[in-house]
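User: I've been trying to design a sequence by hand for this structure and keep getting stuck. Would you show me what you'd pick, starting by listing the structure so we're on the same page?

Assistant: Good idea, let's start from the same input. This is the structure you sent:
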């Protein structure tokens, strides 16, 4: 769950920018009085984090509370995992289980904070074009664990309520239904942000 929303939510703030760009192209020459007061639009880009990884418990958002059976992950053979594979540290060669996490986590979202503090380093998850195609699994969104380099970590989330970003989300706009435009890592989507053509 956390990885698919990482995959699709890492650019959640882009929804605002793209919506504003679309409105700007179709807006009349004289903007409504309320829009004339807008001086700046700031986009906060969630690089290498999913929506659920940081905002999964945000009040009112379509996050972890509504995931249900959609969060169950299956292996490459299509069968559901009994428990998530161990969290791996891909920085080690070959990747090794991360001893901070239990070897068997339930098949579903789990709180990373229970094992590692928010400011502690966790492995960087693979976020490349071909892996994403396999993880999306024809729209079923159920093979993020099967095609990752970090084991069960893709299903982890953190208490984002401790971050300053939550205050911005409460005060401004949080796009919980935005999906990235270009299949691939965030670098490709940086290009899309600048030139959606």
């Amino acid at each position: 769950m956390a990885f698919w929303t990482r995959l699709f939510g890492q650019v959640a703030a882009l929804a605002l920018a793209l919506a504003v760009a679309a409105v700007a192209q179709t807006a009349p020459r004289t903007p409504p009085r309320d829009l004339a007061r807008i001086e700046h639009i700031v986009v906060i880009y969630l690089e290498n984090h999913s929506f659920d990884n940081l905002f999964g418990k945000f009040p009112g958002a379509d996050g972890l509370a509504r995931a249900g059976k959609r969060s169950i992950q299956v292996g490459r053979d299509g069968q559901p995992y009994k428990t998530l594979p161990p969290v791996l540290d891909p920085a080690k060669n070959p990747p090794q289980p991360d001893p901070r996490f239990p070897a068997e986590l339930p098949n579903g979202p789990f709180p990373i904070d229970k094992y590692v503090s928010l400011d502690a380093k966790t492995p960087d998850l693979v976020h490349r074009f071909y892996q994403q195609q396999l993880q999306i699994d024809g729209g079923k969104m159920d093979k993020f664990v099967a095609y990752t380099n970090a084991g069960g970590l893709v299903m982890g989330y953190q208490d984002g309520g401790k971050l300053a970003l939550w205050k911005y989300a409460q005060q401004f706009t949080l796009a919980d239904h935005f999906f990235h435009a270009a299949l691939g890592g965030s670098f490709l989507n940086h290009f899309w942000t600048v030139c959606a053509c």
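That's my pick for every position. To get oriented when you compare it with your attempt: Residues 14-26 form the longest helix (13 residues). The chain has a mean pLDDT of 82.
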